Amino acid sequence: MPRGDDRPRRPPSGFEGARLTMIEIFAYEFMQRALFAGVIASVLCGVIGIYVILNRIVFIGGGIAHTAFGGIGLGYLLGMDPLIFAVLFSVAAALGIGAISDRSRVSEDTAIGVFWAAGMSLGIVFVSLSRGYAPDLFDYLFGNILAVSWNDVLLISVLTLGMIILVALLYKDLLILSFDPSYGEAVGLPTRELRLLLLCMVALSVVVLIKIVGIILVIALLTIPGAIGRQHAQSLKRIMAISIFLGASFVLVGLVLSYQLNIPSGATIILTASGTFFASTLLTR
Amino acid sequence: MTGASAVSIEDLSVYLGGRTVLEDVNIEVKEGDFLGLIGPNGGGKTTLLKAILGLIKPPRGRVLVLGMSPEEARKRVGYLPQKSLFDPKFPISALEVVMMGRYGKRGLFGRYSPEDRDAALAALSAVGMLEEKDREIGGLSGGQQQRIFVARALVSEPELLLLDEPATGIDSSRQREFYELLSELNEKMTIIMVSHDISAVSTYVKKIACVNRKLYYHSSKELTAEDIEEAYQCPVEMIAHGVPHRVLREHD
Hints:
The complex is a heterodimer. Chain A is mainly alpha-helical. Chain A has a single domain, classed as ABC transporter involved in vitamin B12 uptake, BtuC (Orthogonal Bundle). In chain A, 77% of the residues lie in helices and 0% in strands. In chain B, the strands form 3 sheets. Chain B has a 6-stranded mixed sheet, with helices on both faces. The chains are: A mainly alpha, B alpha/beta.
């Protein structure tokens, strides 16, 4: 078993083995923080995720998330908050992948691959250089919603609010970009800049989600609610509403299951989500 | 329709990726014209439309649209791109697609107003698609989709309409109806239409130009056999049947 333990911390020994009700589980403050962070992140996923799907940039999201690991490593090396550097690395990855695939002869998926691997490698080198003990490194890779602090909840809330405001202001523009960018260009929409902005929004969303499901699982939480929403609704706004509801349900169910079964929370949330996705896909064939 | 110039192009040359796509193009399109642009694939038809839209900065030559630069004129130009490969399951209604045509009036960050919605409904009704306004775009037939995209080009109340292969994806039985709609629209605006379908073009348009790097144009519907042969770089047979020209290509 890896050192980083993202299983829910069980209550003191007297409770050992006991099955707790939902109310009892959420009497713990760390569980309240986890639920809070999870619900807010679901709002973010619901709003941004559908754009990720419609613009077919799921794997750019993956590339951005893995590049962020370089920033986390640098945070360890400098003894500062890894998430701040994760923001810098992921935004740099968004702009880098966007610019390279836009201008040079390198195709987009090649750029994704290079950033993905280079970011992970940098992270590993930085961590090894820091020679320190990195107990929660595993949390950044696979997520640990139970280790979320009130500070993290604040950061997640601020980023989510900012993103909702941006999407509200640019709703019609993002719709043109997602549906028919070549037409957008013809009517004067700054498609290149708008696409880079969308990639940066994905980058910031990824950082929010790293705390919850971890770098490796980020793209699942970002895209599965939207993918299911799309199977059941025909308008963008309705898909967003369904995705938010689904995302919050996945977090809640995943959290309770992981607590009851004593298994890692990030993976449990994603398995809940992907299980629902497969079921929904079979039902709506 | 005072005979003022809608599009005026002088000595236009365009080079893309080291290749000469357009060379010394000169053309004068008058207000109220319905110009058909024909020519082989890769001959520069779409590039010419893009130059008129100001999407390509020509290294040589001058393009004036409605008496101004293409960028300035863009708000007064409606554009129907070559059949776009949009996602057929994209969650968007016909009305929402048509509203996109109002982008030029609102700009980035701008919001659509009730006026935009009214204009979109009017455009939908002009193409006979008002009843389908809430349908998802992917659920419509190819011809219906093309009508929606024409409505999107119309909704900005343009003075000039640029159509790139507008009949693509329309059943041949429905094409006549579609071209008649364009003829009707031509009563109110200048139209430039790129097409492969030479017989349709010669039936409905007022003037024809042939583009293959160079532009062959006599400000009329008449093209000489030499023009077309030179443009297509292969022998053509011309049959006149009341319809001015029907051009059949011979292949080796």
